[in-house]
Write a structure and sequence with these properties.
The complex is a heterodimer of chains A (517) and B (318).
Chain A lengths: L4 H13 L12 H11 L8 H14 L4 E4 L6 E5 L1 H15 L1 H9 L4 H16 L6 H7 L5 H9 L3 H13 L12 H13 L12 H10 L6 H9 L2 E5 L27 E5 L10 H9 L22 E4 L15 E4 L14 H7 L10 E7 L3 H11 L3 E11 L19 E9 L13 E5 L9 H10 L5 E4 L10 E5 L5 E2 L3 H16 L1
Parallel strand pairs in A: 5-12, 6-7, 6-11, 8-10, 11-12
Antiparallel strand pairs in A: 1-2, 3-4, 5-13, 7-9, 8-9
Helix pairs in contact in A: 1-4, 4-5, 10-12
Chain B lengths: L13 H8 L18 H17 L4 E4 L4 H14 L3 E6 L8 H7 L2 H4 E11 L4 H8 L9 E9 L29 E9 L19 E3 L2 H5 L7 H10 L5 E4 L16 E5 L9 H11 L1 E3 L7 E3 L4 H6 L7
Parallel strand pairs in B: 1-8, 2-3, 2-7, 4-6, 7-8
Antiparallel strand pairs in B: 3-5, 4-5, 9-10
Classes of the chains: A alpha/beta (517), B alpha/beta (318).
Chain lengths: 517, 318
C-alpha cells in the first residue's frame, strides 16, 4: 500500500496539464501519459506502464472515479477528468498535511488562486536544485517543444528500420578497394615503375600484373610503407614524360584523352591493389544470400525462396512499332532514350512527341519508371512522365567521377556551366504497397564509362525498391545492358532471346501476323 | 546462376557500400573539399575573380521585412520611387515551406530584373513541377529561359548537428519519395540575350559546374541557409554588380542567413536592416565600372583584368 502523500503528486500532475491530457496530441493515451508523468515525477517509482496503471486505478478508487476511461482494459484511453472530485480528494489529502489550507479552502469557492499557487509551487520545485533552465525544462517533454516534435517526425519508423535491415541482409556486400590519399606513395611507386624501368606508360600499355612485378623487382627503391600500401589500396601514379608540363596541371580527360602521346597535361596510371578482394566460394555465397532467415516478410513475394532469377532476355525491335502487350507487365521500367538534344531545333520536335506518345500505359499497372534526361530534355522528360500517368517521386542525381574519382570540373562540358552530373527521373504509378522506400539515397556516385553508358548501380537500386524477382524492363537498351532478371528491348541489342514461355508465345504470334501482312 | 548481377568487381559500388556501412556515396568524391584540385589555372582564375568581385562589391545590405505581400510592396516602391533594377536575383534558400510560389506569381519581375539578367530559384524535388508552371505563366510571360539546373548536395545528413542544408525528411508523413533525399535544386534562368563568345564583359561561362557539394569545411563554418558556393556561382558567372537575394520566409536562428558583401538580402528575420535605395545606388556608382555603351540603361560591371581574360575558359574561336 502506498502512502497517501504519493497521490498528491498525481493531482499536481493533473493540474499542471489539465485538459491537455485529453486533447491532441496526447488524446488520453495512457502509455503517453505515463511517459510524461514519469519524466516529470521520476521519484514516484512507476517505471513501467503496469505499475503506473495500478497507481492510477488506486487513485481513481480514492477520488470516487474522477478519471473516466474508454476503450479496452488493455489500452484504456482517458476521456474526461471530473475536476470537482479531484478537488475533493485534494482537499482531503492536503488537509492531512496542512490544516490552515483546508480552512481557507472550505470558506472560499474552489479557487483558481489556489490552483495557481500550486502550479507556481510545482514549477518552482522543478527549478530548484539541481538548477534546470527553462529551455531544458521545455525539451524534457514533447508537449511544449517544437524541436522534440520535429525529431519525432523525422525519426525512422520501425518499418523503415526493419526494411533497411532486411535489405542489408539480402544484399551481397561488394566491397571495393580504397584509394590511397598519400601523394608521397604515388610518387614513390610511379618512380619505381616508370622511371627506373624505362617504361613509358603513354607508349607501352602496361598491364596491372606487369606493374606489380616491376614493383617487386624494384622493392629497394620504395619505402616499405608504400610497397605494402600498393597491395591493398588503389594508387594514381603520375606519369611524367618529355611532353608533360607540370604547370598546366591535370588533363581534363585523363585516361580518356585522345592525344595521350602528345598531351602536355598530366596523366595518371591507375595501379590497382595486387591483393584483390577474393570472392567467397560460390556455394558459401549462395548460402549467405538465400538462407537469410527473417520474420519481416512485408513486401516479400511468397515464392521468394524457391524462385530463380530469369536469365537475361532481349528483343531487337523498333520501339515505335513494337506492340508492348507482347511483353506483359513490369514492376520497373528503365529508359535511356537517345534525346534529340540539338539546341538549334525548335522546342517540340517530332522526336519528343514520339516519345510522349509511346503507349507506356500498356507496360505497367503500378510500379516505377526511371527515365534518363539531360539538359533540355529535363523538362520534356518531366512532362512525359506526367503524360504517361506517373507522379514524379524522386530524382536520382548521378555524380560523374573521372579516373581520379573526382568530379568533372573542366573541359567545357556544358554551355553555361560545366556539367558534372546527370538526372534520372523516377516516376511512381498507382500506390504499390510492395515497394521498399527510402533504403537508398537519391545520389549515385560513379565513374564515367563509354559515351552515354550509364552506371550499373541503378539496377541494384531498382532491385532494392521493387524486389529482385520482379519483372523489369529496359527500353532503348544496348548489348551491355542485358542482365539476369531484366528484359531489354531496343534497336541496338543483337538478336532476340526469350525465356518466359508466355512472352515467347505472344512474340511468335506477333511475328507470324507480321509475316502474313 | 544465383547472383550473376552482383559480381565481386574491382570497381567500387558506393550505393552497395552505403547499404552495408551507412557511409554516404557522396563522401567518396575525392575533390569535395578542394573542387579544383589538380587544375591550378582554374584555381588561379577563381582566386582572381573572387578578389575582383570583393574589391568592387557594395557593403552587405539587409532589408528586414515580412513575407510576402509586404515584400512585393517594398519591391514595387524600389522600382517606381527609386528606379532600382538588379542583374542577379536569387530567390529562396535551403529551407522547406517557403512562400516561393506566391512570391513568384506576384513579383514585379520584368521591371525588377535588368536585361540581360539572371535568376536563381531554389526548389526541392517535389516543388519543381509547380516551378515549371510558374515560369510559363503570365507574370514571367516565358521571358525567362532556364539555362541550367544546379544541384546542391549535402555531404552528410548528420553534419552540423542535424541542422543545416538537409532537405527535411519526415519519414512518417510522406509516402511519395522512394529514396532518401539529399539534393536541392536551383534553377539558373536568363532574360534578354547574351552571347557567350562576345559578351565577356557581362558573363564568364564554364567557370563553375552545375553540381556543388557541401564540404566538411563549410560544416565547420557553422550552419547557413545559403551555401557560399551558390553565391559564388552567381558572382563568377555574371560580371554585374547589382545582386538581390529574396527569401520569403523566416529562417530562425538555427540555420541563419548571413549578410554577404555585394548582395542585398531581403528576409523577414535578417540580422542586418540597413538598406536604403539612395545609399545603395550611390555606392554602386562608386564601386562599379559603369558602362553606357549601346543600351540606354547603364550597366554596373565588375571590371575584369587581362589575366582573368587569359585564364577563363573560352568558346573555340571560329
Amino acid at each position: 500500500m502506498r502512502d497517501m502523500e504519493e497521490y498528491i503528486v498525481f493531482i499536481e500532475f493533473l493540474e499542471l496539464f489539465q485538459s491537455q491530457l485529453v486533447e491532441d496530441p496526447i488524446r488520453g493515451r495512457m502509455d503517453v501519459i505515463h511517459h510524461i508523468f514519469y519524466e516529470k515525477f521520476p521519484e514516484t517509482n512507476v517505471p513501467d506502464i503496469g505499475n503506473f496503471m495500478s497507481y492510477v486505478n488506486e487513485f481513481n478508487d480514492l477520488c470516487g472515479y474522477a478519471l473516466e476511461f474508454e476503450g479496452s482494459t488493455v489500452a484504456p484511453v482517458l476521456v474526461n477528468v471530473v475536476w470537482d472530485r479531484v478537488e475533493l480528494l485534494e482537499n482531503a489529502l492536503v488537509g492531512t498535511r496542512n490544516k490552515p489550507k483546508i480552512q481557507q479552502q472550505l470558506t472560499s469557492e474552489p479557487s483558481s488562486e489556489n490552483k495557481e499557487n500550486k502550479l507556481t509551487l510545482s514549477l518552482k520545485k522543478l527549478l530548484e536544485e539541481p538548477f534546470v533552465s527553462v529551455l531544458q525544462l521545455y525539451s524534457k517533454g514533447f508537449d511544449l517543444s517544437y524541436n522534440r516534435l520535429d525529431e519525432l517526425l523525422k525519426a525512422k519508423t520501425s518499418f523503415s528500420i526493419l526494411m533497411t535491415e532486411k535489405i542489408k541482409l539480402k544484399t551481397e556486400f561488394k566491397k571495393g578497394p580504397e584509394v590511397c590519399e598519400d601523394a608521397n606513395h604515388c610518387n614513390i611507386l610511379s618512380n619505381a615503375i616508370f622511371n627506373k624501368s624505362g617504361l613509358n606508360a603513354k607508349n607501352a600499355n602496361i598491364e596491372q600484373k606487369q606493374a606489380h612485378t616491376l614493383l617487386q623487382q624494384n622493392k629497394h627503391l620504395q619505402s616499405t610503407d608504400a610497397y605494402k600500401c600498393s597491395q591493398t589500396k588503389v594508387h594514381f601514379l603520375p606519369i611524367f614524360n618529355a611532353n608533360t608540363d607540370l604547370y598546366l596541371g591535370d588533363c581534363s580527360y585523363l585516361d580518356t584523352c585522345h592525344k595521350l602521346k602528345s598531351c602536355r597535361y598530366l596523366h595518371y596510371f591507375t595501379l590497382k591493389p595486387s591483393n584483390n578482394f577474393q570472392p567467397l566460394p560460390a556455394n558459401e555465397r549462395l548460402q549467405r544470400i538465400s538462407y537469410v532467415d527473417h520474420d519481416f516478410t512485408i513486401g516479400d513475394c511468397f515464392t521468394e525462396y524457391t524462385r530463380k532469377l530469369t536469365p537475361p532476355q532481349w528483343i531487337n525491335c523498333d520501339i515505335r512499332e513494337f506492340p508492348f502487350p507482347v511483353l506483359g507487365k513490369f514492376a520497373a521500367i528503365v529508359a535511356d532514350p537517345a534525346w534529340d538534344i540539338h539546341m538549334s531545333l525548335p522546342y517540340g520536335t517530332w522526336k519528343d512527341l514520339e516519345l510522349m506518345h509511346l503507349p507506356m500505359n500498356e507496360l505497367q499497372d503500378e510500379g516505377i519508371i526511371l527515365l534518363w534526361v539531360t539538359g533540355r530534355s529535363l523538362e520534356i522528360g518531366r512532362k512525359a512522365l506526367t503524360t504517361w500517368g506517373y507522379k514524379i517521386s524522386d530524382e536520382l542525381i548521378w555524380v560523374k567521377l573521372n579516373q581520379l574519382k573526382r568530379t568533372i570540373v573542366t573541359g567545357r562540358t556544358g554551355h553555361w556551366l560545366n556539367h558534372s552530373k546527370e538526372h534520372l527521373l523516377m516516376g511512381l504509378k498507382g500506390n504499390p504497397v510492395w515497394v521498399n522506400r527510402k533504403v537508398d539515397v537519391d545520389v549515385i556516385v560513379s565513374g564515367t564509362r563509354e559515351t552515354s553508358r550509364k552506371p550499373d548501380e541503378v539496377y541494384d537500386i531498382v532491385d532494392r525498391i521493387v524486389g529482385k524477382y520482379a519483372r523489369k524492363l529496359e527500353i532503348f537498351g544496348r548489348d551491355h545492358n542485358v542482365r539476369p532478371g531484366w528484359f531489354t528491348i531496343g534497336n541496338q541489342v543483337t538478336g532476340t532471346t526469350i525465356y518466359e514461355p508466355d512472352v515467347q508465345k505472344r512474340y511468335n504470334e506477333y511475328k507470324e501476323s507480321r509475316n502474313k501482312s | 546462376m544465383a547472383s550473376t548481377s552482383s559480381k565481386w568487381s574491382e570497381e567500387n559500388d558506393y550505393a552497395n557500400e552505403y547499404i552495408h556501412t551507412g557511409v554516404q556515396p557522396i563522401s567518396h568524391v575525392r575533390n569535395a573539399t578542394m573542387p579544383r584540385e589538380g587544375y591550378p589555372k582554374l584555381e588561379k582564375l577563381h582566386q582572381l575573380k573572387e578578389k575582383k568581385v570583393s574589391e568592387h562589391a557594395v557593403k552587405p545590405y539587409g532589408c528586414r521585412i515580412a513575407a510576402h505581400l509586404l515584400m512585393i510592396q517594398k519591391l514595387n516602391s524600389w522600382i517606381t520611387d527609386h528606379g532600382l533594377v538588379f542583374d542577379v536575383i536569387m530567390i529562396g534558400a535551403l529551407v522547406e515551406n517557403q512562400f516561393i510560389l506566391p512570391l513568384l506569381t506576384n513579383l514585379p519581375i520584368q521591371k525588377l530584373c535588368a536585361k540581360p539578367g539572371y535568376l536563381f530559384i531554389w526548389a526541392t524535388t517535389q516543388k519543381i513541377q509547380e516551378l515549371t508552371k510558374v515560369l510559363n505563366n503570365q507574370n514571367f510571360n516565358s521571358k525567362f529561359r532556364r539555362l541550367e539546373e544546379l544541384i546542391f548536395i549535402q555531404c552528410n545528413q548528420e553534419s552540423g548537428g542535424g541542422k543545416g542544408f538537409g532537405p527535411e525528411d519526415y519519414q512518417t508523413c510522406e509516402k511519395v519519395p522512394l529514396l532518401q533525399r539529399q539534393q536541392w535544386h536551383c534553377w539558373m534562368c536568363i532574360t534578354g540575350t547574351v552571347r557567350r563568345l562576345t559578351d565577356n564583359h557581362l558573363i564568364h561561362c564554364n567557370v563553375d559546374t552545375d553540381l556543388q557539394i557541401q564540404t566538411p569545411q563549410s560544416v565547420h563554418e557553422g550552419p547557413s541557409a545559403v551555401p557560399d558556393a551558390m553565391y559564388k556561382i552567381a558572382e563568377n558567372f555574371s560580371n554585374t554588380n547589382r545582386r538581390l537575394h529574396i527569401i520569403p520566409s523566416r529562417i530562425g536562428y538555427n540555420v541563419p542567413v548571413r549578410p554577404r558583401k555585394g548582395w542585398v538580402i531581403m528576409l523577414p528575420d535578417i540580422i542586418l536592416d540597413n538598406f536604403d535605395p539612395s545609399t545603395f545606388q550611390k555606392e554602386l556608382y562608386e564601386k562599379s565600372k559603369v558602362n553606357y555603351a549601346k543600351s540606354n540603361q547603364p550597366q554596373f560591371l565588375v571590371p575584369q583584368s587581362a589575366e582573368i581574360e587569359e585564364l577563363r575558359p573560352k568558346s573555340p574561336n571560329k
